Amino acid sequence: MKKYKGFILVLLPVVLLGTAARARLGDSPLSVFLIKGTDDVIEGYKIKLYLAGQDSTVEAVPLTSEQKKAAGDILKQKNKNNLVDLSLQITKSPVVIGASTSDDAWPAVLGGGIFPLFKNDQENEFDNLNWPDRIFLALFS
Question: For residues 125 and 103, what is the distance between their CA atoms, to the nearest angstrom?
């Protein structure tokens, strides 16, 4: 009986915290700034990821010619720090993703599942996420 009591005392706070966190995640979306494109066409997007089951929203971000030039340089260099700085100027998003591709496909980290993260075809994508964040977003966004 004692081992069940300890288990319940540990499990109950975890369940309560999980329930509260899930409710809070529904109120506060994760804001992501995505720059994708090639030299010819650079596009910016602000994505709001609701991690508690709601649909995410995608909003095109108009970029000035100067911002497009800076974004093109960032994509060529795969410079995370400059991408964060550009994001702070435009959308103030804490998460940034760069994809130097002309494909219509979204980066694998945005709901692509876990297996594309481990393929070698992700060399055109970079972000400021760590591996646990990438896996969480790939599975739950």
Answer: 12
